[in-house]
Recover the amino acids of this structure.
């Protein structure tokens, strides 16, 4: 199993960052997706993300913890990325007046792309997502 961890700080209070990302369907408001449609509510909800260029994938909310500022999601098969068994967890915590974010993903590379390249791709998604959060928050 491959694992990718990205940690960063966002110059905004945890409550502000959580308000931005806690809405599972809200990624369309701040992320680099063209469209986000959600079916269902709460744990078990499935969002369909359409990326620039037409690539689309489905993610299911696997866990959600309001008090801990944490949620996990999986990518459903068939997955357009060269991974299987993908599970990701996003956790926020206070870092003084700022917010510390940990974005962790575990998956099996499906063999069509070398593991290091797949890990780099996933890391790029996480760092791009954090950059988009900072932009949306104006920090």
């Amino acid at each position: 199993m491959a694992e990718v961890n990205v940690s960063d700080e966002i110059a905004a209070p945890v409550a502000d960052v959580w308000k931005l990302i806690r809405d599972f369907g809200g990624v369309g408001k701040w992320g680099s997706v063209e469209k986000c449609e959600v079916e269902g509510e709460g744990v078990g909800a499935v969002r369909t993300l359409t990326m620039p260029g037409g690539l689309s994938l489905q993610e299911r909310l696997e866990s959600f913890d309001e008090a801990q500022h944490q949620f996990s999601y999986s990518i459903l098969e068939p997955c357009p990325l060269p991974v299987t068994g993908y599970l990701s967890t996003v956790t926020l915590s206070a870092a003084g007046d700022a917010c510390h974010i940990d974005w962790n993903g575990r998956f099996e590379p499906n063999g069509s792309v070398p593991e290091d390249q797949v890990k780099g791709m996933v890391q790029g998604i996480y760092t791009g997502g954090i950059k988009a959060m900072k932009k949306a928050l104006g920090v």
Summary: Residues 92 and 101 are 5 Å apart (CA to CA). The mean pLDDT is 95.
